[in-house]
Amino acid sequence: MGRRAVIVTGAASGIGKGIAEKFAASGDDVLLVDIKEQQLNDAKEQLAATFPEAVIKTAAGDLTSKEFVECIVSECKSVFGRADVLVNCAGIFPSTPFLQISREEWDSVVGLNLSATFFVTQAIARLMVETKPDNANIINISSTASEVARPGVAHYCSSKAGVKMLTQVLALELAPYGIRVNAVGPGLVETEALLATLNNEKSIAEHKEKVSFAPLNRTAELSEIAAAVYFLSSKEASYITGQNLLVDGGYSAGRVFKSFAPQGKKAIE
């Protein structure tokens, strides 16, 4: 497929880092973007040591800042000369009952999850239109929350539903420029952050119950989310645009009755 210039936001840890690793392992150059500077530098060192042939750069800052978004574009131009792939993965997931959500919390969630996705995409899409890379595409990380409502996360669900619709609209508007736009919606993913919450019997029991809602009866591995993103970015997916691919073990397909639940691999025994 050739060496590509890839931007991944939220790349300091978790899903974003896993996605960045997949692209670096496949021979692409990657710009890691995140607000957590120390973790971002650690991720860069790890990827650079593991994949010495890849060019790994970082940009640390607040994605809700117009000035920082402009810095990302400048970095792409100066280091790579173009942007082939943008993966919007940065996001936050606070859990608060609807009646207690403050305006500040709503603004912070929608501001990063949806508004920053919009403006980063707009800026990088303009660069793509200008430089005309072959097989340019944008992949947004949505969520099963873009399709399935959950209590306690009204702001998160709303923001991810917005990401899904934004993906579809941009697929229509950017198609004339040869830019494909898709989304990947993870279900439960086995990240370090998730595992860190499983520190007592109650949290482990609640986790097992959540896992049981998916027909495959397990969490996703980071590599499985990264593989879906990579596929959509590849020429093998050249006729796919405007889609929200849910990688959720069947969770969004419907509720599993426990008497029929498969005995699949479990993340926590």
From TrEMBL:
InterPro entries: KR_dom, NAD(P)-bd_dom_sf, Sc_DH/Rdtase_CS, SDR_fam
Entry keyword annotation includes Nucleotidyltransferase: no
Family: Belongs to the short-chain dehydrogenases/reductases (SDR) family.
NCBIfam families according to UniProt: PRK07231.1
CDD domains: SDR_c
Gene3D superfamilies noted in UniProt: NAD(P)-binding Rossmann-like Domain
Keywords per UniProt: Oxidoreductase
Record's protein name: SDR family oxidoreductase
Organism: Planococcus shixiaomingii
Domain called Ketoreductase: residue spans: 4-187
Lineage: Bacteria, Bacillati, Bacillota, Bacilli, Bacillales
Keyword Repeat: no
